[in-house]
Amino acid sequence: MIISPPFLPTSNPGEPDSAYLNRAMLEGIPGNGGFPVSYDLNWHGGVHLTAPMESGAPLPVRAVADGTLAYVRQPTARSSDENHALNYGGAWTDDGCIVLRHETEIGEGDTAHVVFFSVYQHLSTIKLSDPVVGGKIYRKDELGQAGSIREPGTAKIHFEIIAAEAASLIGRTSAKLDHQSSDGRKDSCWGDAHFHLPPEVLCYEQRPASWVSSDNSTAAIVTRPAQSLFIRLRYAKGQCTLTTITEAGEVLGERAEVTDFEYELYQTACDRYPACPSAGYELLRWGRVLGPDPLRPAQAAHWRQISLPSGPAWVNLNATTVTCFSDADFPHWLGWQLVDDDTDDDSHCQSAIVRAVLKLDEDPLFPDGTDAISIANSPSYGGLPAEEKDWLGERYEIEQERNVAKLSECYQHLKRFAFKFPTEWRHEGFDARYGWWTRIFHNDEAAVQSYEKLKAHQKALAFWEEAALDGIGSTHWHFPPRQFIEAFRRCGWLSQTELTQLLPMTALRKAHGQWVSEPVAYPGPIRGRMEERRAALNKALRIFAVSSSPLRLAAFFGNAMQETQWFAKLHEDNSGAWYFPWDGRGFLQLTHADNYIKYWRFRGRVVSETLRQQLRNAAVTAHQQNCNNALRDSNFSGLTPEMIRWRNSVERDSFDAANSACAYWSWTKAAVFADQSPVMVRQVVSGADAFVYYSSIPFGQVAATVNFGNPTTTTSAISGVNGIQARYQAYISALMVLSEGLRFTDIHGQEYEYPEGCTPRRI
């Protein structure tokens, strides 16, 4: 899944994603345009977002993810008629509306196949040309302009993310995560790693001498809190941080690993887990082994120093009773909960969980555990004495004032909750949802008239029956929009259509001394082979944290697509090359015997040093002679048939084709450059025509690192990279699919959202 906010301001270099989302999603305050309730505790299924301004104008509304058009309603022309249903509250409310259906993947298999909808209400204009229900919509497509919500001169939308079920998205059906009995999801695993440390897990002043030993009986024990502890293991831009948290979400301490711990993770895994570094790498990154290579020894420890109230302490995060999770499990100690305990059909929140979070039942004024609206909705209302009915209106207003304070005070505890309740966009059932108003203010004629106006206004905005959305009922799950988008932006799992879109439409190369631009084909057979390999590629990108950021993914694919001739060849198959048969294989074309052996040893396979040295010497001879005779397999008695199968599997086996590329990415430290913010420089080459492409020094350094096999800091070396112009084009094409907020200049220095001469691939 690739997802973004519905407004896309220009990004700032090096800006954290949370800061970008703060600028992109200007939310209404809790209780007034916020999620999930209003001040009177009526359910509010989305958020009001104010369009950010750029160049003196509000930004357009965009599709948050690839999908299909599920419903569209053109906005009503503004009317000066005060009695018009859309003039409710003394000001116009725009009623343009779009609903998109998103069917995608967040991991492997049916359990990670997800469907959700995004709702864009209060559009003043709709930009889709000839919109057809069922038609394809791509992420970042312009949907329209934000309109008014009873506030003249503002540009706002009501935005929702809804789904029929939560299990595939969140990984469970229970309110909280079962963190004691087993580890978390493997089908979907991304973001940070998390560990549950039950009370019996001991903490120590020192770690044992051996990193893999779980026996630390000689070290002094450090006092730790008696309750369960949770450790968040976060990697970001080369750094690693461990945060200690209670189940209530209180942060007890934080500790940073040594500088560049992530960039050095390959070497650290080799040093600490030499018998099988690949399994050790996964243990260090994810807290558990996700791939096929076993830990050696099987119960190898995972020692980390954490921060406790009493000071630093060492703990084995792979101890028997420690359980491990990722952001894909939406841990409740980080605030994620599923709430479905309000089962009636009215609009009022009567969730005991929400009332407890807001501490409403602790109100000394109203210790009866209910509120005015609930009383008005109850079967006992009809039997209330007249004075108690009259009192409900006053109680309602007192409770509203209280709720304003409580929502402001407690919103941080609610902001990651997902709720199941009825939509507010049905035509039918308005009286069942809002009839409490006429009972609370039963003696107030003005209130009754206001109710009728509200009813007409709501019916003018309603769309549920007309939309007839496939596969979702009127009572469904509502997700906190900002938090949903922020969470799934860390997923990085590419669907078939997302992967296909990465390919540029054309690529530059020199032919007969002249630059030519050729179409990049993606015929059915190649597409089919890539689909067979896609899951393995996604898993490798996940394990090695390439998919942890759009910049890394774009830099990886900018090279992988060009190296494999646009996914057509996972084997160079160049029998005339001096380095054959150790020529390029896999998604980054692993080349030379030294690199193959390095990869095999990383997987825990035994290759003698004698054979490695023989192959190294033969490679020197072959290079000098520009002839591969010295590298023939028959020259090496220690090169077994099994090793030849290992070599071939880097092309033929989906796991090795992907894993070898990502291991190579890791040991060459390509992420050091990929993590740098790109600055796009317009370039022109001439052939029969002039061709424009955009270069970026950080990506050029990644390309040189991949092509030459070592980190490259000399920018002048970039020009020597094989096919560097096509790699730049592939990188830009991937960036346009994977990221947002970039700007490209034309010949006059004017900035544009899309690069000159770059046509997106559509499916």
Account of the protein in words:
The chain is α+β, with helices and mostly antiparallel strands and 763 residues long. It folds into three domains: 17-170 and 385-488, Glucose Permease (Domain IIA) (Distorted Sandwich); 193-333, no CATH class; 496-752, no CATH class. The chain has 22 helices and 31 strands. The strands form nine sheets. Strands 1, 4, 7, 8, 9, 10, 11, 12, 13, 23, 24 and 25 form a twelve-stranded mixed beta sheet that branches. Strands 19-18-17-14-22 form a five-stranded antiparallel beta sheet, with no helix packed on it. It has a two-stranded parallel ribbon with strand order 2-3. β18 (239-246) and β19 (251-256) form a beta hairpin. α14 (524-543) packs across α19 (654-667) and α15 crosses α22 (724-738). The longest helix has 29 residues, at 386-414. The mean pLDDT is 96.
**The named CATH superfamily of the largest domain:** Glucose Permease (Domain IIA)
What is the number of strand segments? 31
Q: Helix/strand-derived class? A: alpha+beta
What is the CATH-assigned architecture of the largest domain? Distorted Sandwich
From the alpha-carbon coordinates, what is the Rg to the nearest angstrom? 30 Å
Looking at the structure, what is the overall shape? globular
CATH top level class name of the largest domain? Mainly Beta
Number of helices: 22
Largest sheet: 12 strands, mixed
Query: End-to-end span in angstroms?
Result: 16 Å
- DSSP strand content: 15-25%
Q: Indicate the CATH topology of the largest domain.
A: Glucose Permease (Domain IIA)
Average pLDDT for all residues: 96
Poorly predicted runs: none
Percentage of residues assigned to helices: 25-40%
Number of domains: 3
Organism: Pseudomonas jinjuensis
InterPro entries: Dup_hybrid_motif (IPR011055), Lysozyme-like_dom_sf (IPR023346)
Protein name: Hydroxyethylthiazole kinase
